[in-house]
Design brief:
This protein is mainly alpha-helical. It has one domain.
């Protein structure tokens, strides 16, 4: 019960952070691996994914009621993310993780520097028309991030938020909302493998899911209430944490 209680605490904070700026897996997944070291890694991954999917779904539902979603952009991204997440998961055994980690680290450092230098990045929303070019870009972004999520995973939500802001002129609140909808697709794609294969421990996943949902609702409320400027700060903090974690994995593990 102590282990479950601690996992639920981590799940709450993971849901809170993930709802605002992505990166909940940075908190929840290491907690599972450290607190349940004797469980198979596939079961830990499946349990984590189910809890995260529940929180992401409630965060998305909460955002949809508070911001105007550009569905003509989001739905193509959702569809391509779902398909490419399957392909990414299938490619895991063919792409060495030691090759992926340094590339991801470089990309996250670039994201952090760009966001820090551009003080207005994501704090205002630019009204841009949605045409065929923008829909194609949405498909490319959804597919690329979906493939990455299936292949590796850390920072998926943060990559989506950054690209939605940089490419489509969203602010952090709208980008967070849209990223949750794409994340639902990648989560469902993963669970389509984990659940039939029996890689979800429901006795652990169920209470974690409840706490992840509560955290996600809290994170959504904070993000909408405090505004894009506050979320930008959280985003930068999360990127720094991701840089530290990936650097540790690459150079010290």
């Amino acid at each position: 019960m102590l282990t479950i209680s601690l996992l639920c605490l981590f799940a709450f904070f993971a849901g809170l952070i993930d709802a605002a700026v992505g990166g909940g897996g940075l908190i929840q997944l290491p907690a599972l691996f450290n607190l349940m070291p004797n469980m198979a890694s596939t079961s830990l991954l499946g349990t984590n994914k189910l809890a995260s999917a529940c929180g992401t779904t409630f965060a998305a539902r909460s955002f949809v009621g508070k911001v105007h979603i550009p569905w003509l952009l989001v739905l193509p991204a959702v569809a391509s993310a779902f398909v490419m997440s399957f392909i990414g998961a299938a490619a895991v055994s063919y792409v060495p993780q030691q090759v992926v980690r340094p590339m991801v680290l470089v990309l996250i450092i670039i994201m952090a520097i760009y966001t820090f230098i551009k003080k207005d990045f994501g704090t205002t929303r630019e009204a841009r028309p949605i045409g065929p070019r923008e829909r194609v870009l949405a498909i490319v972004i959804g597919g690329a991030i979906g493939f990455y999520d299936g292949l590796f995973g850390p920072g998926t939500g943060s990559f989506l938020i950054f690209l939605f802001i940089r490419v489509f002129g969203f602010d952090f609140i709208l980008a967070s909302a849209c990223s949750k909808l794409v994340n639902i697709a990648t989560n469902v794609a993963a669970l389509a493998f984990f659940i039939p294969a029996g890689h979800v421990v429901y006795a652990v996943a169920a209470p974690m899911a409840v706490c992840n949902i509560l955290g996600a609702l809290t994170g959504t409320w904070i993000a909408v209430r405090r505004g894009a400027a506050f979320v930008r700060i959280l985003f930068l903090v999360l990127l720094v944490l991701l840089i530290v974690k990936l650097s540790y994995d690459i150079f010290f593990k």
